[in-house]
């Protein structure tokens, strides 16, 4: 219920402040399990995509959003799935929850890049999207978010109003030919690359064949503390150039 209440409130506001266009909506079936694989260029991607769809979509969201009171209420209200980007069992738990959504005939959204693009280019996809598609035999719809980076650049809290935003949905991709090779890492990479190829064509982004680096403040290395030196004091030099005499 909370999902539809939030959607009912936000949809008219977003349509008023932004010129939103949707291409390819006919590719989304009215029911049945579907994976929406989207590029990720702005925090507000997760607002605009659900806004233009009549069906409910569930995303994975980074766990930090659920720890921040400013965003936790929204992500909990709309039933998003937290995922720790450090990988391991936490990430697998999120994929298991996504499998439950799809097994129930739901619509699941995922950002294969794993994080927002730091510079607007499209980066190499992680294979979670392929694992879900092959494991459950469901189609993947590539979705390009265009203009959301200008609407809300990374690091900017207040969005820029009256920016044109386009949501472009591509044709469904099916990978039934690989149904007997679900655990083959080469197949998982092939499927993921096919999805990213379609995303590049839809979004017209330049492609980078490496994983995107997180640029969130909490991901930056922390400065090392100033070391505390012990031992006898260093003798001061009388050399005007500041050079320390060396014993020979």
Model description:
The protein is α/β, with parallel strands linked by helices. It has one domain (23-212): Glycerol-3-phosphate (1)-acyltransferase (3-Layer(aba) Sandwich), CATH 3.40.1130. It contains eight helices and nine strands. The chain has helices at 2-17, 45-51, 64-67, 69-77, 89-103, 128-136, 148-151, 185-203, and strands at 19-23, 34-38, 57-62, 81-83, 107-110, 122-123, 140-146, 164-169, 207-208. The termini are far apart.
CATH superfamily, please? Answer: Glycerol-3-phosphate (1)-acyltransferase
What is the 3D shape?
A: globular
Low-confidence stretches: 216-237, 240-248
Architecture, according to CATH?
3-Layer(aba) Sandwich
Q: With helices defined by DSSP (H or I, 4 residues minimum), what is the helix count?
A: 8
According to DSSP, the number of beta strands is: 9
Radius of gyration: 23 Å
Helix and strand sequence? HEEHEHHEHEEHEHEHE
Kindly state the percentage of residues in helix.
25-40%
- Please report the distance between the alpha carbons of the first and last residues: 82 Å
> Could you report the average pLDDT, rounded to the nearest whole number?
84
Number of domains: 1
The assigned structural class equals alpha/beta
Strand content range: 15-25%
The CATH class turns out to be: Alpha Beta
CATH topology, by name, is Glycerol-3-phosphate (1)-acyltransferase
- Enumerate the strands of the largest sheet in spatial order, edge to edge or round the barrel: 1-8-7-2-5-3-4
